[in-house]
Amino acid sequence: MRKLILFDIDGTLARGGPAKEAFSLAMMATFGSVGAIESYDFSGKTDPQIARDLLSATGIEDAVIDAGLPALWDAYISELESRIMADPMKLLPGVGELVETLRLAGDVALGLVTGNIVRGARLKLGSVGLAEYFQVGGYGSDHEVRDHLPGFAVDRAVDTWGITFSEESVVVIGDTPRDVQCGKHHGTRTVAVATGRFDEWQLKETGADAVFEDFSDVDRVVEVLLE
């Protein structure tokens, strides 16, 4: 393996699905509040950060939030699992061909850097047939601060493949400035894709090493990722 390529999920690989509804129901069941969820910007944030932001704004103390998070995640996964097969996520342009091409490249390891808790990530990827492509990852369930997540993914990749990946051989891919920021924080290359809330100009402003409108031109994307 000479490259470790780490993908975000929401807005990068796929979009849609019932996650927001499932999260809202779980928040109400666990804490009796969803806060100002309709106006909240989820972009690039971890699930624990989202929960804490929403609940803290209603006056709930951190200690209460921390104590309730395990129950929140159990409720969220239950709600998500009961809904996602009837309302699956949808792959974004070029994604299916891109991950298959990278998998067949032979010297590429694929993983995730996502704010989703690990169980939510698996359900979301399973709904679009991608779960088998990603053996390792850094997840919101590992740390509330996204900047720390690439480190978890790289450590798991080392354990899985027995290879030390240099910072230059790791690529973090996402659709938000926070995705780019967390890659830069870890010293990796960064690639941004404008299939979420942010356009190409906004993503170029982050200093990402490459920015794509989407992944439709699979050959070009692969060329950039493997260079």
Portion in beta strands: 5-15%
**Structural class estimated from helices and strands:** alpha/beta
The largest β sheet comes out as:
6 strands, parallel
Q: What is the number of helices? A: 9
Low-confidence parts: none
Mean pLDDT metric: 96
CATH class of the largest domain: Alpha Beta
Overall number of strands: 8
How are strands sequenced across the largest beta sheet? 5-4-1-6-7-8
Q: Give me the strand/helix succession.
A: EEHHHEHEHEHEHEHEH
N→C terminal distance: 14 Å
CATH-level-4 superfamily name of the largest domain: HAD superfamily/HAD-like
Count of structural domains: 2
Which descriptor suits the 3D outline? globular
Q: Please tell me the CATH architecture of the largest domain by its name.
A: 3-Layer(aba) Sandwich
- CATH T-level fold name of the largest domain: Rossmann fold
Brief write-up:
This protein has 227 residues and is of the alpha/beta class.
Written account of the structure:
Helix 1 (19-31) crosses helix 3 (62-83) and helix 4 (95-104) packs across helix 9 (218-226). Helix 8 links the parallel strand 7 and strand 8 (210-212). The protein is 45% helix and 14% strand. It has 227 residues and is of the alpha/beta class. A 6-stranded parallel beta sheet has the order 5-4-1-6-7-8, with helices on both faces. Strands 2-3 form a two-stranded antiparallel ribbon. The chain folds into 2 domains: 3-16 and 89-226, Rossmann fold (3-Layer(aba) Sandwich); 19-83, Putative phosphatase, domain 2 (DNA polymerase, domain 1).
SSE blueprint:
Blueprint (H helix, E strand, L loop, with lengths): L2 E5 L6 E2 L3 H13 L15 H10 L5 H22 L6 E2 L3 H10 L3 E6 L4 H10 L8 E3 L10 H13 L8 E5 L2 H10 L2 E5 L6 H5 L5 E3 L5 H9 L1
Helix pairs in contact: 1-3, 4-9
